[in-house]
Automatic annotation (TrEMBL), chain A:
Name of one Pfam family that matches: ELP6
Cellular component, GO, one term: elongator holoenzyme complex
The protein's name: Elongator complex protein 6
Organism: Frankliniella fusca
Family: Belongs to the ELP6 family.
InterPro entries in alphabetical order: ELP6, P-loop_NTPase
A Gene Ontology BP annotation from the UniProt entry: tRNA wobble uridine modification
Pathway: tRNA modification; 5-methoxycarbonylmethyl-2-thiouridine-tRNA biosynthesis
Top-level division of the source organism's lineage: Eukaryota
UniProtKB/TrEMBL annotation, chain B:
Extent of Acidic residues compositional bias: 290-305
GO biological process: tRNA wobble uridine modification
Entry annotated with the keyword Transmembrane helix: no
Subcellular location: Cytoplasm; Nucleus
Keyword annotations: Cytoplasm, Nucleus, tRNA processing
UniProt xrefs under PANTHER family: ELONGATOR COMPLEX PROTEIN 5
Record-given protein name: Elongator complex protein 5
InterPro entries: Elp5
A Gene Ontology term for the protein's cellular component: nucleus
Pathway(s) served: tRNA modification; 5-methoxycarbonylmethyl-2-thiouridine-tRNA biosynthesis
Organism: Frankliniella fusca
């Protein structure tokens, strides 16, 4: 299950709530399982812990619950639904309860372009700004609406670097991230999880990774084993931040859980 | 010198802190030697030191200090201090700088942001920007450099005089490659390069003299302490340097007898015991040359004085 990953990285601490977390994936690693684990933590783990602390058996929605808004860029929403289902989290039923909402990047991009009556040269230059601006507006509206009904809200963005290949420049993307960071001051109990792919070869991705890392309170780095492939180890996970003790772990992705262990202790 | 900056006693209009990211020290690398995590900028590149220094700086400074927060952690860490210190003004540059939420709130640069909450009686202020990397991308590198220049020279009308400007910049987060950090360093009168708990300080004095220092710092409980630099004792000069007497085709050194003779020689301009009684007043001796055209006549003889 996801609890092992969350506990191992220390992301179940109270200070992680209402903070921003950057998830950086390097090389051929895929960090989508970390995002699914975060979703599990927000939708199940956090509220269950709070109920246990208050001596309650069943969680009372809206008082202890955390709603999740997911923006999918690289993987489809179906990918996250399937992945979460394996972790014991039914996103379809949770979305019916209003605890979970999703936004599709490509859908928003096509909608933002269709609102333009005439596409002039100037508009084409400003395309990127229009995309990120409308994206931010729709996300902010949804988050404010979710906050009305639930105690805390979590915004998760998967592979934000995909915006760079959708006509958005680094500058426009950095302004967009600034605005998302600004939401943390506007909306209480909001946590922000943004993942991006970092490549040393692509300067724009390197800058984006460094920008996110500097902007966030905590950083989770997912990378593959550089020594090659191993049947016991899927890759490396490290966490760093202001109040968390830094550490590196190896992980193994199993069908229904993520197994965490210290480097060199894969058989334990 | 870091302590002098912290106590707001360094006479320098623009102090620039440059955070350099390096790989973590050996103690923080793990068993899996193939894995190289991204450098932990929050600990190693000096941003924590900068915030700690700014906190003390605000307490020491008598002037109002305006902090432009371009990173959320700066805002979060300085917010509690704002309640205690009336001379601290925090500007949240992340919330709505470009007017996406409220178009009336659109700001154009650093000075327009400061003017928004500038008390009417402010004549001289200090400004802190943390960090410049963000506005370099989101406002523009050229615009930022121009504004920094204006702030240092206080050339903008209707703006208070900026007594001191403290900025932090991530060395690896500068547009047009890391070499462009040189443009920003050129503007600064004091540059503090922070790298792995070591500060290399270059201070340009008003007279043009350049002072260089290296200090090592340790952060504990949000306060930094200066430590003696490890391994700074100068090693002896290596013996493989070539001396002139080894390569010259003539004798360079003097014998003891020659040195004694040289010391006995009295040069014409040297004072000797004969003229010691004339000490106490100035006197000019002139020995005309043989070819000098010396005229004994009074040049003012024809004047009716």
């Amino acid at each position: 299950m996801a609890a092992a990953l969350i506990a191992a990285l220390g992301l179940d601490q109270p200070e992680v709530q209402s903070s921003s977390i950057a998830v950086l994936e390097k090389g051929n690693a895929d960090s989508s399982f970390v995002l699914s684990c975060f979703m599990w933590e927000c939708l199940v783990g956090r509220s269950a812990r709070e109920c246990r602390a208050n001596g309650l058996l069943l969680p009372r929605p809206s008082e202890t619950s955390t709603a999740v808004l997911l923006l999918t860029c690289h993987h489809s929403a179906a990918h996250y639904r399937n992945q979460s289902l394996k972790l014991g989290l039914n996103l379809t039923s949770l979305s019916q309860k209003g605890l979970f909402e999703e936004l599709d990047l490509m859908k928003i991009i096509s909608e933002s372009f269709s609102t333009l009556k005439e596409t002039s040269d100037e508009d084409l230059c400003r395309n990127g700004t229009i995309v990120v601006k409308s994206l931010f507006a729709s996300m902010r509206t949804k988050l404010l609406k979710l906050k009305e009904n639930f105690k805390s809200v979590c915004l998760i963005i998967g592979n934000v670097n995909d915006l760079l290949t959708s006509g958005v420049s680094n500058t426009q993307l950095f302004i967009f991230i600034n605005y998302l960071q600004g939401l943390l001051s506007e909306i209480t109990n909001l946590s922000l999880v943004i993942s991006t792919h970092v490549s040393d070869d692509a300067e724009s991705e390197r800058l984006l990774g460094a920008f996110l890392k500097n902007a966030s309170d905590f950083t989770v780095t997912v990378s593959a084993l550089q020594t090659g492939l191993s049947k016991d180890v899927s890759g490396c996970l490290s966490v760093g931040g202001l109040s968390l003790s830094s550490g590196t772990y190896h992980y193994r992705l199993l069908d229904r859980q993520v197994k965490m262990f210290s480097p060199g202790a894969s058989s334990v | 010198m870091l302590e002098v900056i912290r106590d707001a006693k360094l006479q320098s209009p623009f102090i620039l802190f440059v955070g350099h990211t390096t790989d973590p020290p050996a103690s923080r690398t793990f068993v899996c030697d193939s894995f190289h995590p991204l450098p932990d900028s929050t600990d190693l590149n000096g941003s924590s030191l900068f915030i700690s220094l700014v906190k003390s700086y605000i307490k020491s400074s008598e002037l109002d200090t305006h902090v432009l927060c371009w990173e959320r952690k700066t805002l979060r860490q300085l917010k509690p201090l704002q309640i205690q210190m009336s001379n601290l003004f925090l500007h949240d540059c992340l919330s709505d700088f470009h007017g996406w939420i409220n178009p009336d709130e659109t700001q154009t640069g650093f000075l327009s942001t400061i003017r928004k909450i500038l008390p009417g009686n402010s004549r001289e202020i200090n400004v802190v920007i943390d960090s410049l990397s963000n506005p370099f991308f989101t406002i523009g590198f050229g615009v930022c450099l121009k504004e920094l220049q204006q702030m240092i020279n206080s050339t903008t009308e209707n703006s208070p005089k900026i007594q001191q400007l403290l900025c932090f910049v991530h060395g690896d987060m500068v547009p047009c490659g890391t070499s462009s950090i040189g443009h920003v360093k050129h503007l600064a009168t004091t540059v503090v390069d922070l790298n792995n708990q070591t500060a290399r300080i270059t201070h340009r004095k008003p007279g043009g003299h350049v002072e260089r220092k290296e200090e090592q710092f340790v952060l504990s409980n949000g306060q930094f302490h200066i430590q003696a630099l490890a391994g700074t004792v100068k090693s002896s000069v290596p013996s493989n340097t070539t001396l002139p007497q080894d390569v010259a085709s003539f004798r360079v050194s003097l014998s003891d007898k020659e040195k004694e003779d040289r010391n006995k020689l009295v040069l014409p301009y040297m004072r000797t015991g004969d003229n010691s009684q004339e000490e106490g007043g100035g006197k000019v001796f002139y020995q005309p040359d043989a070819v000098d055209d010396w005229d004994d006549e009074d040049p003012d003889d024809d004047l009716d004085i």
